[in-house]
Structure to design on (146 residues):
C-alpha cells in the first residue's frame, strides 16, 4: 500500500497528515518546530510504514528546521508551489475554511492524486544549505536585493 504525507508548516508548530492510496486519513500529528518535533514526525511516519523513506512528504516551503531535518533523515520532501496548492483547495471545496489540519491533508492528497507531476527536492550539500541560509538572512536584513 502506498502512503502520502502532507506537512502544513507554521512558525511555532506543524501539522502532518498521512493518507493511503484511497485517500483515507491514516495519521495526524501536531508537533513543535524543534528537534523533538522532528523526532516525533519521523516516528509517526515509521509507525505508518516501517520503511518510512517510501512516504513522500509534501510541504509548501523549502526552508526551515523540519525540511532540513527530514531531508537529512533521507525522507523524500516534495516542495509544492503555494499558488498551486490554493488552486487545489478551491477546486476541492470552494467555501472550505483554511485549517492547519485540513491543509496537511490537502498536501498529502495532492501527492496522492498528482504525485507524478511533482518531484522530491534534491538533496543539498551542507555548504549549499549554509550559503542559501546566509543569503536569505542577508536578504531579510536588507543587505541584498533581488
Amino acid at each position: 500500500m502506498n502512503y502520502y504525507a502532507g506537512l502544513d508548516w507554521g512558525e511555532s508548530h506543524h501539522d502532518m497528515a498521512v493518507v493511503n492510496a484511497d485517500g483515507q486519513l491514516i495519521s495526524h500529528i501536531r508537533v513543535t518546530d524543534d528537534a523533538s518535533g522532528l523526532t516525533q514526525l519521523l516516528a509517526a511516519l515509521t509507525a505508518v510504514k516501517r520503511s518510512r523513506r517510501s512516504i513522500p512528504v509534501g510541504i509548501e516551503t523549502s526552508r526551515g528546521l523540519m525540511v532540513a531535518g527530514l531531508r537529512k533523515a533521507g525522507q523524500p520532501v516534495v516542495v509544492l508551489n503555494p499558488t498551486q496548492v490554493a488552486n487545489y483547495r478551491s477546486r476541492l471545496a470552494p467555501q472550505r475554511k483554511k485549517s492547519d489540519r485540513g491543509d496537511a491533508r490537502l498536501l498529502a492528497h495532492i501527492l496522492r492524486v498528482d504525485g507524478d507531476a511533482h518531484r522530491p527536492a534534491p538533496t543539498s550539500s551542507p555548504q549549499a544549505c549554509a550559503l542559501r541560509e546566509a543569503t536569505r538572512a542577508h536578504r531579510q536584513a536588507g543587505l541584498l536585493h533581488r
Q: What stands out?
A: The helical segments are 35-48, 65-72, 82-92, 100-114, 126-140. The domain at 3-121 is CATH 3.30.420.10 (Nucleotidyltransferase; domain 5). The chain has one domain: 3-121. The CA atoms of residues 72 and 107 lie 21 Å apart.
